[in-house]
Design brief:
Helix content is about 95%, strand content about 0%.
Length: about 375
């Protein structure tokens, strides 16, 4: 009896433990199911939040609207996935195309800017050299102008000097002619008087001589001299003859000396005029050379100034074109970065949508059906 009672108790105990295990299992299942449901509910809410964020983007809205249209048309899920893949491939192809164009454009920009920088560097060097040359030519031209003015003034001074010498020579020639004429007249008179005086014996009648002088008057001084000499004593007459002969000899010497002085003056004049002509000839050659060089330097200066102006214009153009190119390249670079960021963002949206389609098809279907 006791064993039966004990067996029954054991069975009851065993039965009670089994029911407890079952209950625990059931409770566990319910808890797991409840937790799973909670997780699924939370996941669903997260997916909807993700979809809402996607829809806030213009591109994402268009994609979701396209998916909604296909789902509402009962298009197969494969078609929706294919559409997403096509959009993703299009974006990737567009990005690769833009990357290739960006590489090419970057090389072109770098090459163009390098060309402009080289032109600017060359033009700057040329401007420095041309400015230096123009400055030297200007200084040289000023020196030539001064030299030409100096030589022209020297030429005028030489001409004035020669004219002065000629006038002085003419004056000397006239003075010599006058002196020589006077000397010749006196000598001729002496040549007439001296022979007659030698024939006079002296001791003439003084009263008769005075009467003859009165008759002669001033018309013939030689006859008057002879009349007076006739009244002199022989000794005085001899003295007079000696003095007159000495005078004639002195006058002849004076005439010869004047002739020598005139020849010497003529020689000096010819020498001075010759020297002046030599100086003037050399000065004329120098002046001609300076004038020719002046014309050459003026022509060179004109060309260098024109080259300097052209080079300055080229430098201004190169700087302007470089600035334009730089702005265009910067604008293209900004556009490329913006386009790349936009496509990367769109690819992220596509990847997000594809992930939702793969893991939460029912949620996204329910979501887009309500759009």
């Amino acid at each position: 009896r006791q064993m039966c009672i004990r067996d029954r108790g054991i069975r009851i105990i065993l039965k009670t433990n089994k029911m407890r295990t079952v209950a625990i299992a059931i409770i566990s299942v319910l808890c797991v199911a409840s937790f799973a449901a909670k997780i699924e509910s939370t996941a669903t809410l997260n997916v909807r939040d993700r979809l809402d964020k996607i829809r806030d983007d213009d591109f994402g809205k268009k994609i979701l609207d396209t998916i909604a249209l296909q789902i509402k048309r009962n298009e197969p899920l494969a078609e929706v996935s294919k559409l997403m893949n096509n959009i993703r491939l299009d974006l990737q192809n567009e990005q690769r195309k833009q990357n290739a164009e960006h590489s090419q454009k970057s090389r072109e920009c770098a090459s163009t800017l390098a060309t402009y920088n080289e032109r600017i560097s060359q033009n700057t060097q040329e401007i420095t050299q041309l400015s230096f040359t123009v400055s030297n030519l200007q200084s040289r031209l000023q020196g030539l102008f001064a030299s030409v003015d100096t030589r022209e003034n020297q030429t005028k001074l030489l001409g004035n000097r020669e004219q002065f010498l000629r006038n002085d020579q003419q004056h000397d020639e006239a003075d010599f002619a006058a002196r020589l004429s006077q000397i010749n007249s006196v000598v001729e008179a002496l040549d007439l008087v001296l022979p007659r005086l030698r024939n006079i014996r002296g001791d003439g009648d003084e009263q008769e001589a005075l009467i003859q002088l009165a008759k002669i008057g001033k018309s013939n001084p030689i006859n008057a001299l002879l009349q007076v000499s006739a009244t002199l004593d022989p000794r005085s007459l001899v003295i007079i003859l000696e003095k007159l002969e000495q005078l004639r000899e002195s006058l002849s010497g004076a005439a010869d000396e004047n002739r020598e002085n005139l020849e010497e003056a003529r020689t000096d004049f010819s020498r001075l005029v010759g020297e002046l002509n030599n100086v003037r000839r050399s000065l004329s050659e120098d002046l001609s050379r300076d004038r020719t060089e002046t014309e050459t330097v003026q022509y060179q200066l004109q060309n260098y100034r024109r080259n300097l102006e052209d080079t300055n214009n080229e430098l201004t153009s190169a700087k302007s074109n470089r600035e334009i190119t730089y702005t265009e390249c910067e604008r293209y670079e900004a556009s490329y970065r913006t386009g790349t960021e936009r496509r990367n963002h769109q690819l992220e949206l596509i990847a997000n949508i594809q992930n939702i389609l793969a893991t939460h098809i029912e949620t996204i279907s329910d979501y887009v059906r309500k759009l």
